[in-house]
């Protein structure tokens, strides 16, 4: 009997090894779950569902979208990065929960806990001048702010949010001092801008384009590397000699430790999905800006934005406030 035990143990290990190898090689053998850290019906949720519809064509299995909102996106993000690293639980990784919330404290993860798979898209940032503002274009905006430090009132969608970080980061890069004014969402900030209660506002193109087209407010600059199609006459910071870009983003993440072949399978399926014509058409219909990037480029973007956000959050005296 003593002689048989090692043999049985060896056989058992061999069976387990073979099963594990087969499971990884055959991935996926069952539906894949993707955790959306926000409520159903929002932009990230709708994007994830469009992605799931297309991804099953390239992955060979269906995806189940599970909404797990709360904590500004940190609860669902935590669930995704702390799941079993087998490729069957993924997450929609957004800029706020990944690159910003860890600096405010109160979350149980960092970028080191994240396996970046692919960037799906970005929400661009536009600075628009409001009714009665003492400037008409980007050059005037910068010049007036430089001559009146701390006086130019720039509205954003909420204190410490992506839009707030955007204008403060632009100010740092240009050596400008703004009077940032938080509102209860982008809609409220844009309404205040149209009413002339503030001097400028930071928002996405979709949130300000109707007002820009009607002449209620004036596009000043877009925080991108290059001009964008929907606002072709609006300059970017580089044209003003300012080295700064900023946008909010979302992509697909997983727990660290994902088997390499599983990661490769996912990465290739997502690349095909994000280049799929039907997917692109549906996203464009919804006003989403698709910007596919590989895992390494996605991580690089997240790390860069995290460093920028940390610097600004510390300047604002908000670092670790949720600890």
TrEMBL record:
Keyword Signal: yes
Protein origin, superkingdom: Bacteria
Keyword vocabulary terms for this entry: Signal
InterPro entries, per database record: BUG (IPR005064), Bug_dom1 (IPR042100)
Signal peptide as annotated in the record: 1-24
Pfam short name (any one): TctC
Family: Belongs to the UPF0065 (bug) family.
Protein name: Tripartite tricarboxylate transporter substrate binding protein
Species name: Halomonas dongshanensis
């Amino acid at each position: 009997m003593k002689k048989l035990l090692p043999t049985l143990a060896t056989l058992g290990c061999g069976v387990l090894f073979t099963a594990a190898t087969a499971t990884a090689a055959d991935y996926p053998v069952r539906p894949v779950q993707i955790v959306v850290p926000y409520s159903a019906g929002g932009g990230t949720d709708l994007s994830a569902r469009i992605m799931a519809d297309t991804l099953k064509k390239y992955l060979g299995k269906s995806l189940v979208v599970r909404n797990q909102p709360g904590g500004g996106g940190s609860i669902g993000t935590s669930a995704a990065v702390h799941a079993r690293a087998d490729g069957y639980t993924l997450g929609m990784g957004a800029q706020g929960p990944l690159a910003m919330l860890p600096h405010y404290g109160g979350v149980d993860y960092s970028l080191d806990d994240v396996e970046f798979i692919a960037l799906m898209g970005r929400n661009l940032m536009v600075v628009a001048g409001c009714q009665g503002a003492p400037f008409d274009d980007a050059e005037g905006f910068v010049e007036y702010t430089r001559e009146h430090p701390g006086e130019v009132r720039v509205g954003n969608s909420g204190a410490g949010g992506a839009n707030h970080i955007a204008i403060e980061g632009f100010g740092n890069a240009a050596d400008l001092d703004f009077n940032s004014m938080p509102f209860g969402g982008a809609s409220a900030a844009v309404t205040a801008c149209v009413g002339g209660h503030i001097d400028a506002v930071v928002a996405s193109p979709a949130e300000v384009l109707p007002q820009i087209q009607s002449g209620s407010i004036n596009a000043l600059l877009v925080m991108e590397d290059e001009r964008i199609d929907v606002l072709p006459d609006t300059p970017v910071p580089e044209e003003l000699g300012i080295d700064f870009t900023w946008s909010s983003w979302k992509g697909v993440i997983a727990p660290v430790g994902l088997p390499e072949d599983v990661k490769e399978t996912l990465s290739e399926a997502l690349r095909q999905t994000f280049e799929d014509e039907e997917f692109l058409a549906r996203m464009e219909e919804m006003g989403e800006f698709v910007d596919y990037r590989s895992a390494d480029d996605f991580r690089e973007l997240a790390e860069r934005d995290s460093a920028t956000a940390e610097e600004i959050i510390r300047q604002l005296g908000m670092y670790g406030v949720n600890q």
